[in-house]
Specification:
Strand order of the largest sheet: 2-10-9-6-5-3-4
Number of helices: 10
Strand content: 15-25%
Number of strands: 17
Order of helices and strands: EHHEHEHEEHEEEEEHEEHEEEHEHEH
Largest sheet: 7 strands, mixed
Bound molecules: pyridoxal-5'-phosphate
Radius of gyration: 22 Å
Shape: globular
Length: 382
């Protein structure tokens, strides 16, 4: 490492700076809605707030049919069942554990496909060689909100008769040429966990295009109950409560403002870190409206000791808690490591990305000067 004068070193933050903080709506905007629950004593099972929230959310996301869930993982489990996936499903190792785990919970073998380095999404050109007679679907993730190559994935899926699920846990509010991100594939899942851009504390949704499939999902998330005396399929309890819907309605009022603030912070990051050697900024894709859920840089080791892990550790000394998101790869977890598709030789880009990515703090209440300070800390480490 280069010698530098300690005098010039940026100061540590007095309070810890975390990678994200959830949107906190005005408490009265939340409690006003709780009063409606207290008046009716209706806490769950398609209450008035649930219905209002579902309608508003579908409009905001520009999608035709949306089912609310108690979390994104149960939603994704239900999506696999609804499409009757079985055997093998092609997915990405560069994701949150929930993605391959829902396949496992459905007795499906995940088949890990390498990623393409720019967006870090599943590389559509590498799907076809992984297809066997057992393959029934593709489960792709819009990583960090960057849309997958939906056209190429659709082509492979149509040609080979496969179903497509998108995990859009990172992509709330993302649009491609004005179209909501939920309009691609057979089913799209969203997560409303508190760490995501938009949240209901815990929550999620499934988005589909046709009313029959929507009706089936609505049944599946409520035990398959049609009426008091009629149960038509073995469903699960995936319902969102009125309390969560109340929070969702209040947070929805804040989400566009939050995105604007994050957008400005992302611009500060871009300006401050531009032209830094061995550090690359997130890709910008023409025609895509981003949501700024994450700000992820890649730090390429240069042999001098400057690396992702070094920056991650050093930032902690300054009270900045960045995240190595996603590290390790899902294919490196004990449960999946022995699968043939987990062989590192088949996943060079995913492995490289997992060793280079670093999620930097981004949330509406962070100040532009905080971002500048984080950037000068990073620069001082080179
Ligand atoms: C958060 C997340 C999930 C799981 O969502 P929950 O609502 O927490 O169950 C799934 N996939 C990805 C990529 C995620 O980031």
């Amino acid at each position: 490492m280069k010698e530098r004068s300690p005098r010039l070193a940026p100061e540590a933050f007095e309070e810890p700076v975390y990678v994200t903080r959830p949107i906190l709506p005005d408490l009265r905007a939340f409690t006003a809605r709780l009063e409606r629950i207290w008046e009716t004593r209706w806490f769950t099972n398609k209450g008035a707030l649930h219905e209002e929230f579902g309608t508003e959310l579908a409009r905001y996301l520009k999608v035709p049919y949306l089912s609310l869930f108690n979390n994104g993982t149960i939603a994704l489990l239900t999506a696999c069942r609804c499409l009757e996936l079985s055997g093998e499903v092609i997915t990405t190792p560069f994701t949150f554990p929930a993605t391959p785990h829902v396949l496992t919970w459905n007795h499906i073998t995940p088949v890990f496909c390498d990623i393409e380095p720019r967006t870090m999404n599943m590389d559509a050109r590498r799907i076809e060689p992984l297809i066997t007679r057992e393959t029934t679907g593709i489960l792709a993730v819009h990583v960090y909100g960057a849309p997958c190559d939906v056209q190429a994935i659709r082509e492979v899926a149509v040609r080979r008769g496969l179903k497509v699920i998108y995990d859009a846990a990172h992509a709330f509010g993302v649009e491609v040429n004005g179209e909501g991100i939920g309009n691609f594939g057979d089913v799209t899942m969203m997560s409303f966990h508190a760490t995501k851009l938009f949240h209901t504390a815990e929550g999620g949704a499934l988005i589909v295009k046709d009313p029959e499939r929507h009706a089936r999902i609505e049944l599946m998330k409520n035990f398959g109950i049609v009426s008091e005396e009629e149960v038509v399929l073995p469903g699960i309890n995936g319902k969102m409560s009125e309390l969560h819907a109340a929070l969702g309605l209040a947070v929805l009022e804040c989400v566009s403002g939050e995105m604007e603030k994050r957008k400005r912070l992302a611009e500060v990051y871009r300006q401050s870190l531009a032209n830094m050697e061995n550090l690359s900024l997130p890709c910008e894709i023409p025609g895509v409206k981003s949501n700024y859920q994450y700000f992820v840089v890649r730090i390429h080791p240069d042999g001098s000791g400057f690396s992702r892990d070094y920056v991650y550790e050093k930032l902690k000394e300054y009270n900045v808690f960045a995240r190595k998101y996603f590290f390790p790869l899902c294919s490196e977890y004990g449960h999946y490591a022995r699968l043939p598709s987990s062989n590192p030789r088949g996943l060079p880009q995913a492995l490289k990305a997992s060793r280079e990515v670093l999620c930097l703090p981004i949330y509406g209440d962070l100040k532009p000067e905080d971002v500048r300070r984080i950037c000068s800390i990073i620069k001082s480490l080179r």
